[in-house]
Design brief:
8-stranded mixed sheet; globular; alpha+beta; single chain; 2,3-Dihydroxybiphenyl 1,2-Dioxygenase, domain 1
């Protein structure tokens, strides 16, 4: 492993977030329930027409960055409530699509699509967790799926085409964290620094950081950088093209109730104000704002339905480039 001059998420975020995931109440701690919620949300009924979701890039970017997080999608039981929350919090606007009984909205920041929101009503007595799904860029979804499956991944949704978006598939890694592959038909977003209201970082919290880093490296050909960490903890950066794409963080305990998961962060100008707005809008605070090693404040929150996500300030002088 090599040392990297780039940011990481502090261990306190990992500890507190995992306390949230293993608490009772609205958040289910069962991996099987989470997989069921995600799988049912993204797999349309047999014979259903594909969703007419917009392209990621208009005009086409011509760029391809394998291993980059290029999109995220939310499965939520209450689409209108989610639109109201994220619109007021992040300034997103929405365009809804209905295909049969399926309701989907694309979230935009200005003219740029930044997220998808899929409504999946949960029946009475069901304990499923609303969640964000992280999409990684690939050039060949079918080939990447085969590589992942050969390395121990579970295929939750087989590769399928969306007319303007491209080809995608949903999987769970060998530790159980759910993620998606996407070959964007219009190219990938450029490696520009995310604006406030856009996704800026993704972190995998997992039971075996070294093994999971090796798994994702086999799919995306990542360079893996090891960062200083507390005793017993592992913090790794995954990079391509000398650009940090995501981090892998070890779970802080052997508690079997803590499940591996991806956590995505939105860039905000002021984490303190953003957290106050989350609470005012009916969301919850999982990890209070605090200064991370990269110099900005970060926090972890949950929307009114319980879907967790992160808020992150990003100092203008900080770069995602990694040093060899």
């Amino acid at each position: 492993m090599q040392e990297a001059a780039c940011t990481r998420l502090g261990p306190e975020v990992v500890r507190r977030t995992n306390r949230w995931f293993r608490r009772g109440g609205r958040i289910s701690t069962s991996l099987e329930l989470l997989l069921a919620a995600l799988t049912l949300a993204w797999v349309l009924p047999a014979g259903a027409a594909p969703l007419q979701v917009p392209a990621l890039e208009t005009p086409e970017s011509g760029e391809h960055h394998v291993g980059k997080v290029i999109f995220v999608e939310l499965v939520t039981p209450r689409l209108a409530e989610a639109e109201q929350f994220y619109g007021a919090l992040l300034g997103w606007t929405f365009r809804e699509i209905t295909t049969g009984s399926n309701r989907y909205a694309t979230a935009f920041l200005g003219d740029q699509p930044v997220a998808g929101l899929y409504e999946k009503p949960f029946g009475g007595g069901e304990r499923r967790q609303p969640a964000w799904l992280t999409f990684f860029a690939v050039s060949d979804v079918d080939g990447a799926k085969r590589t992942a499956a050969g390395a121990g991944a579970k295929v939750l949704s087989e590769p399928h085409n969306l007319p303007d978006r491209g080809r995608e598939a949903v999987l769970a890694d060998p530790q159980g964290a759910v993620f998606a592959l996407l070959a964007s038909k219009s190219g990938d977003p450029p490696d520009d620094l995310a604006l406030p209201g856009e996704w800026i970082w993704s972190s995998l919290i997992t039971s075996d950081a070294d093994a999971d880093a090796g798994f994702y490296q086999s799919i995306f050909d990542y360079e893996v950088y090891e960062l200083p960490a507390e005793a017993g903890a592992t913090h790794l950066i995954l990079a391509t093209d000398n650009y940090a794409r995501a981090s892998v963080n070890s779970l802080p305990s052997k508690d079997s109730r803590i499940r591996p998961h991806w956590l995505d962060y939105v860039r905000v100008d002021d984490a303190l104000n953003a957290v106050a707005k989350v609470v005012a809008l009916g969301g919850q605070v999982v990890v209070e704002p605090h200064v991370d090693r990269h110099g900005g404040r970060i926090a972890v929150v949950a929307d009114p339905s319980g879907a967790p996500f992160g808020l992150m300030e990003w100092p203008a002088a900080e770069t995602k480039e990694v040093s060899q």
